[in-house]
Amino acid sequence: MVKVYLISTLSLLFGFIVSAQEAKLPNVIIVYTDDLGYGDLGCYGNPTIHTPHLDKMASEGMKFTQFNIAANICTPSRAALLTGCYPKRVGLHKGVLRGTSKIGLNSNETTLAEILQQEGYKTACFGKWHLGHQEQFLPTKHGFDVFWGFPFSNDMSKKEQVLMGNNKYAYSLPLISQSDTLDLDPDQSVVTCQLTDKTVQFIKEQRRKPFFIYLTYPMPHVPLYASNKFKGKSKRGLYGDAVEELDWGVGQIMAALKANKLDKNTLVLFSSDNGPWSIYKTKGGSSGPLRGAKGSTWEGGHRVPLIAWWPDKIGKGETCTQYISNMDILPTITRLVGGQLPEKIIDGRDITDLFEEPYKVLKEEPFFYYSSKGILQGVRLGAMKLISVKGDFQLYNIEEDISEAYNLAKKQPGDVERLKSIMYQFDKKLEKESRLPGSINNLNNENLNPTLSAI
């Protein structure tokens, strides 16, 4: 009897432990690179850049082939990811913030970090922020317990601009911890390694409680840097060196999750903030089969890699061809953790079902393409994309013509007019619903006429 009782007790206890583990909130890591192109990874077809860790991540998880960014430049893209909104809705659509900007992400907006923080998550932002450099706009004011990184792009300093032939910049690139400046114009060749180490350390420290890490590598945005371990190793030159070091960083993070027995309970998303530079030629990345690059409303500016990894929860080696956007990340993760969506209007949709059913056909919803200056230039609905090119409307079947090579506007004028109507009705409605960014000129964030520096 004693033996039977003991076995029954252990069985009940073991069952409780399993149930508790199953009910445990998942950890979330978003790795957001800077200016990485659709064609820059091995698993997306690059023949020369060696990315074994990301390729393995894709083979163990899910690769998305039609993941779109709500903006083709840095600041608005990051605003869209963290708020689930088109950048125009939150007032951060007209270019990128710089060291002279007096606006940033409004404290009245609800970020993904704040949603997770409310659910008991420890939150960290490591890397590039680019949503305002004054203290009131920093990550620690928007739901992140920890911040270590840069307030804007790695080229935004007098030192780097002089090297690039521009003498107009008068400020330095600060390295910030929380809200304190640790250094000015630090050695960028070690930044990828430093951010990786910070992330791995945070995983170890927080392994017993749910955590959210927003890791925003500054590479491969120009100016390009790689550590001595990777410099000169890639066939693709310095750009390839920088990307291969990012791949190494992801490998270190995945190893840390497994070493701390967190891999089965962690969702990892890897992506880029927009398409690659084209004006820097081989110093920039590749859009693969896509037309255009960073700053354009062609697919090369808006479509980027997305790899989702979560063992036993996301299909192994799956490919999802549904078109989705970075605005969908916030509502999706919110549902996964049982959180509350923002009370204000957002534009993203919950795509959780795609993790289990990648071939599921979602309800068709339009996706709108805004220029680097925040002007509406196009719309996609289903397979059809309408885009305005210097006032001339062009129509493409994106599913059949990924490279946007065959203009169907003259053959299908009805589709042109239908999509134009959808475009302008949405933009008019968004204009009325749009909210103001935060401003250092008015701490109440009212009566502001925002002006951002263009790319």
How are the elements arranged and paired?
Blueprint: H1 2-23, E1 27-33, H2 52-60, E2 62-68, H3 74-83, E3 103-104, H4 112-118, E4 122-128, E5 146-150, H5 158-163, E6 174-177, E7 180-184, H6 191-205, E8 211-216, H7 237-259, E9 266-272, H8 299-302, E10 303-309, E11 318-320, E12 324-325, H9 329-337, H10 353-356, E13 367-370, E14 376-381, E15 384-389, E16 392-397, H11 413-433, E17 438-439
Parallel strand pairs: 1-8, 1-9, 2-11, 2-12, 4-5, 4-8
Antiparallel strand pairs: 2-10, 3-17, 5-6, 6-7, 9-10, 13-14, 14-15, 15-16
Helix pairs in contact: 6-7
Q: Which of globular, elongated, flat, extended, rod-shaped describes the shape?
A: globular
Q: Any idea what the CATH architecture of the largest domain is?
A: 3-Layer(aba) Sandwich
Q: Spell out the helices and strands N to C.
A: HEHEHEHEEHEEHEHEHEEEHHEEEEHE
What are the segments in which pLDDT stays under 50 over at least 5 consecutive residues? Answer: 1-22, 443-455
Q: What's the name of the CATH homologous superfamily of the largest domain?
A: Alkaline Phosphatase, subunit A
In CATH's first tier, which class of the largest domain applies?
Alpha Beta
What is the average per-residue confidence, as pLDDT, rounded to a whole number?
91
Largest sheet: 11 strands, mixed
Integer-rounded radius of gyration: 22 Å
Oligomer: single chain
Distance linking N and C termini = 77 Å
Descriptive account of the structure:
The N and C termini lie far apart (77 Å). Mean pLDDT is 91; it is low at 1-22 and 443-455. 29% of the residues lie in helices and 19% in strands. A hairpin with a 2-residue loop joins strand 14 (376-381) and strand 15 (384-389). With 455 residues, the chain is α/β, with parallel strands linked by helices. The protein folds into two domains: 24-356, Alkaline Phosphatase, subunit A; 367-439, 2-Layer Sandwich (Arylsulfatase, C-terminal domain), CATH 3.30.1120.10. The chain has eleven helices and 17 strands.
